[in-house]
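Exercise 7. Given the components listed, write out the predicted structure of the assembled complex. Treat all entries as one system.
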Amino acid sequence: MNVNILVTGALYSSQSAYSALRFCQAAVAAGHSISQVFFYQDGVTQANLYSLPLDDEFDAVNSWVRFSQQTSTPLVVCVSAGERRGLMSDEQVLEHHLGRNAAIDSNGSAHSQFSVAGLGVLHQASLDSERMVTFK
Amino acid sequence: MVINRSWHEQVALFEPLCFAQSGDTILLLEDAVLAMQSPITLASFLAKCQANQISVAALLDDCRLRGIDNKYPQIDLVDYTGYVDLVIAHDKQVAW
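Answer.
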């Protein structure tokens, strides 16, 4: 069965990253497919390239990246929720001329494994999927 | 339905009961499993679920992480594979 995942919980202040990732791994192991993982509201923080947890802690961002690479599951970040929270791709940084400010790194803060898109992508995936599961 | 907040937020535990229907399953996830440490609150919750033919489950991993034993035969402990099975078995999921 095709399952669409919506994640809205913030990195490290909620358990949503761990719960959602474990659910996705179990679903794939059971023979189901994850159509996409959509990060919305505070969930966009789970795409932050500059998140550097200690070595013995759960590394949510890189765990998502590994899962995506191993299973070819798309990871999608909501564009406007990301921009509100300073989570942007390289292209967005250039588009908003943030690179001109020497205090701001010209590289985007969103990991390149995550694509940035609008809510229409979530809407389409929810229409195309048989189940939708939310992690807050 | 999935509840992931502590029972201390009383609404989080009881509000879904206003919407749940016969045949639904309520899964206690993350901090929601802490309700299993409160016999009086949980007894009231389980009685309402039983009266409305609503099943109750709790995520085993979250119980273990919080050192909680299941003393309630009405609550099914499920692992993440069981969580996936619940999602497949029910058409819709609502996160509370």
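Discussion: The domain at 2-135 of chain A is CATH 3.40.1260.10 (Hypothetical Protein Ychn; Chain: A,). The radius of gyration of chain A is 15 Å.
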